[in-house]
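Changelog-adjacent note: as of this version, every example in the card shows the full chain rather than a window. The one below runs 565 residues end to end.
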Amino acid sequence: MTDTAVRRPVPPGFPLRLTAPDPGWTTRADVVVIGSGIAGLTAALRIHAADGSLKLLVVTKDVLNAGSTQWAQGGIAAALGPGDTPEQHEHDTLVAGAGACDVDAVRALVTEGPEAVRELIALGTNFDHHPDGELSLTREGGHHRDRIAHAGGDATGAEIQRALIAAVERAPAIEVIQHALAVDLLLAPDGGVAGVTLHVLGEGQRDGVGAVHCRAVVLASGGLGQVFSQSTNPSVSTGDGMAIAMRAGAVLRDLEFVQFHPTVMYLGPQSQGQQPLISEAVRGEGAFLVDFEDNRFMQGQHELADLAPRDVVAKAITRRMIETGREHMWLDARHLGEEFWQRRFPTILAVCREHGVDPVTELIPVAPAQHYASGGVATDLHGRSSIPGLYATGEVACSGVHGANRLASNSLLEGLVFSRRIAEVLPRELRGWAAPAPDHREAWLFAGSHRRALQDVMTRRVGVLRNSAGVHEALQFLDELEVGGAVPGVEAWETTNLVTISAALARAAFLRTETRGSHWREDWPDRDPRAGHVDSRLDELGRVQAVWKASPSTAPSESASGVTA
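Full-length structure tokens:
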């Protein structure tokens, strides 16, 4: 590769592997888990419990607690309260998913969820309880029951992360490498997993790019939030796992279903990167949305009003912003009082005050921002991808439970349940050891300097509001993006991953000519009666191939659910 910018090959394509130095070190492990959130650590612990003879390696891009799990404020959803049932949880999940859920996957989630949460408690997770000892449960958008277990008021993810890290540290067979960016999969002659290349910063003898030969890889690397200018995701969420899988030939599903959280604290038009989340649980405890004239505009929009599913609330806020020419709306939680804020939402209270807003006495400025990727690496009910030996769990995966719009607090539960399911099958179906085949796929990179322009285009054209002309503009930008001048390293590798996933996301958004859940097409405002899925992959030239596969909607009737488009 030259140091000067060159035009993309024609027809446009994307790299099938990343330009990187040859591995300077090698090691072996039976299973490599990429990611250290609830999905990754649960997978490692459960695989270890299933077969203690296996050598497990957990690699994490930063430190063990730096992923998305620690930022989860609201809690984890499960039918644990009096009068609640998995069937009711299933109904709410299917309604929120707007007809695009896999019913079998949802059933597995809600029926296995209560036991999985109880095991988290047995592991040492300290959820909040009432004075009488009963588990404290709250309600969030889309739920018809109080079924959200929380910890530390609004620090649920951090508490779960703490308990899981402590358990991993007690398991000597689980090795952890921090500050390790997964670069690419190593493939065996049959196309299955033979290992993975990593770039490690200063782990003793493991420094720079190396290779881990293994028999299986579990992707638990989180989402793609940094595709957009504003996101609730941490800076490490650059779509690495999805891009790694895609370059290796895996199928990605339903990338167009990107959830924008309706109540993210608005910090001004120039704000970039991770934004402060105002948990849906605040509305679950009685806060409500108002416009600049103090109108409660969610009234009449949905039977649950301010607690409608996230896509409904995000669209309502966006519509009101457009109608009034304002850059944000307001969340009113003043009536909750100082004592309640300090006890129930101490983290959010501190963050708001840090940014100059006291929610005890002032309205909180809020606007939608990217929050969660419902799509990802297509998997079956036990986390298997389309590549032998490659599994995926958590936000990097598309298990089918979220459909077109994730129900609040189902994300932690998905990572927990489907990592347990992977552990049920992986030990007995482990592949034999195989030497990686020679890799002749073309390797190149996009320079890190493209990231800001990429995020701006994706936010403006493939954000909350989408239409044919806007998505086409984003696709044209991606297809014409110049290459060259990129020095192999974290900045270029992350940016190349973001570009690749952005192209797949935009093509899927262009192909889905309907409005469903979190995918809002202004030029196609109605739902197609066939929900279907959009499957994406890279062909042998690195071009994104996206195919829509029609299937009947699985949503409960709209008259029963109150869901609006």
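Structural remarks: The two ends are 48 Å apart (CA to CA).
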